[in-house]
Every structure is written in C-alpha cells, then in structure tokens.
Amino acid sequence: MSTQERHLYNHNPFLQFWARTSHKFFHWVDDTFIGRHNLDPDVFDIASTTLPLPRLDAAFDGYRIVHISDLHTDTWLGVERLEQVVRLVNAQEPDLTVITGDFITYRNTTLIDRMAPVLARLEAADGVMAVLGNHDYWSAPEEIQAMLEAAGIEHMGNRVRTLQRGAAALHIAGLDDVYNKRDELQSVMAEIPPHGAAILLVHVPDFADVAAATGRFDLSLSGHSHGGQLVLPWLGPLVLPPYGKKYYSGLYRVGGMYQYTTRGLGTSTFAVRLNCPPEISVHTLRNAE
Ligand SMILES: [Fe+2]
Question: Which residues surround ligand 1, an ion (CB under 5 A)?
Fold first, then answer.
C-alpha cells in the first residue's frame, strides 16, 4: 500500500464509516443471535502443531511456544475478549509467548492504554515477545511500542534474543514490518550466532520465501492474512491482503523451513469472520534426531 493509499485508509470518511457501521451491525448480530456462543471459550480454536527441527538442541525438546496475532482489539475482539484470550494462552503453560503484530486497526489511545494491563497478565517462562504489523504502523506505532513496554512485552523489531539451556541455544529473531519497509534482514542475520535453531517472527507470511532462502531459519511465525477471515464454502477466502496471499493459513514447508501462519484473533475492514474461527496456536518443538 502506498503512502497515499495509507492516508486514504486512515482518513477516508467512507471507509471509517463503513468499518464502524459494520462493527456495530455485527455486534448487534452477536448480541441478538450468537452472543452466548461468542463468550464461550470454544469460540477460540486452540490449534496444536508439533514441529521437528533438525538444528534444535535436545535441551529444547518439547519447548512450547504459544503464538497469537492480529488482535485488532478495536473492532471485533474487544478488551473483554482479550482478557479471555490471556487466560487461554496462560492455560497452555507456554515456555514462550509470541505476538506477531496488528494489535489495533485505528488509533485509539484510550483503548491502547486499556490493553497494557490485560497483556501484562500473559505469563510464560521465557517471557513474551512481539513484532508490530502494518496496521500498527499505519495507526499508532509509538503508542503501541509504549504499550508493549508497559505490559512487559519485548519488542523484537529487527532484534535477536538467544535463549539458553546450559550451553544449548535457541535464537528468536524478530523482523520489523515488511509491508511498511521497516525490515532490516541483513542486520538481523548478522546478529544470529552460527549454531542452534533459529525462529523468525514476522507479521507478513509471504516473506517466507525470502526467509527460507537464507537457509538460517528453521521456523517462521506470522499472521496478517486472518486465514482469509471470510472463507466461502468450496471457494475459499474472499479476499487476501498483499504479502498474505501465498502462505495465508496454517503450516507450510518452504525449502528447509517451516512457515506457520495463524488465523489470528480479530478482524479488520469487515467485523465478522466466516468459516474461519479465531486461533490460538500452540507449537511444540522437537529435536528431530
Ligand atoms: Fe496485517
């Protein structure tokens, strides 16, 4: 999306009106017809995958990463459901929790302030890490970064952190938003030590071709496409966004790397999901030997 398009998206009164009206309409549908079900924990699909990684040291065998994305808290999800998400994530007893961007859709500082104490309750042995998404950059990147800091969440944009189990190492690399050209792959690559498995956090999934071509990443975790969000029977997703068309949902093998794209939690543009429930992803890493 060009700067001009971005400006349009944020300031076009019709688009803003449409987003808010559709939000209100589907909220009414929720309350009137399916509200009870939406407050049921079953509305969130907890999707588990087991990933054998050849470079993973045996010391990290069984390591559990809980992965959430695309909260878009200001549209369908809301802070109340976010509290429910936090409880469900913590119940998975993660070693590490990662959030791959798009915390919000529009700039709403009151709501951003309300998110911090909720996300601060995420509990994981090795902490919580996050990268920002295209909507975060289009709306309020500074406020989102401040919110992450207040919530004790590590911002991983163009950064690497190495987790240790004795001499064994597992590297977590974060790439800043590719859509807004904030990514600095070369500097991230230079920071990753030569040995040990490496996992990439990047908002957009179609970066997988580039990430896999480096030969350094064993797994890449993304969101962005919402699994299509509106998925028609037999026909598949109605619309897929730029950078989210090829690897738009679930697990893929790209060269020697796994790509996992979570369907995310919230919605954008249309405040509804169709045949595409919100997802909390649980990845269990296995030493391939
Ligand atoms: Fe996105």
Answer: 102, 133-134, 224
Cα of 288 from ligand 1 centre, angstroms:
32
SS3 sequence of 17-55: HHHHHHHHHHHHHHHHHHHHHHCCHHHCEEEEEEEEECC
Ligand 1 centroid to residue 142 C-alpha, Å: 17
- The pair of three-digit structure tokens given for residue 215, joined into one six-digit string: 């030969």
- Give the Cα-Cα-Cα angle 250, 257, 98 (nearest 5 degrees): 60
DSSP 73: I
169 C-alpha to center of ligand 1: Å? 30
Distance from the alpha carbon of residue 215 to the mean position of ligand 1, in angstroms: 25
What are the tens digits of pLDDT across the range 130-160?
999 999 999 999 999 999 999 999 999 999 9
CA dihedral 5, 240, 75, 121 (to 10 degrees): -110
Cα 71 to averaged position of ligand 1 atoms, centre (Å) = 10
Amino acid residing at 181: K
Starting at the earlier edge strand, list the strands of the sheet with 159-165: 159-165, 168-174, 197-201, 219-222, 257-261, 250-254
CB 152: neighbour CB atoms within 10 A? 13
Asked whether 224 and 101 are in contact (CB, 8 A), the reply is yes
Give me the domains of the chain, ranges plus CATH numbers: 3-287 (3.60.21.10)
Residues 6 or more apart whose CB falls under 8 angstroms from that of 169 comprise 57, 162, 163, 193, 195, 196
pLDDT in tens, 163-177: 999 999 999 999 999
37-54 pLDDT per residue, tens: 443 445 789 999 999 999
pTM of the model as a whole: 0.88
Q: Which residue matches tokens 């309350």? A: 31
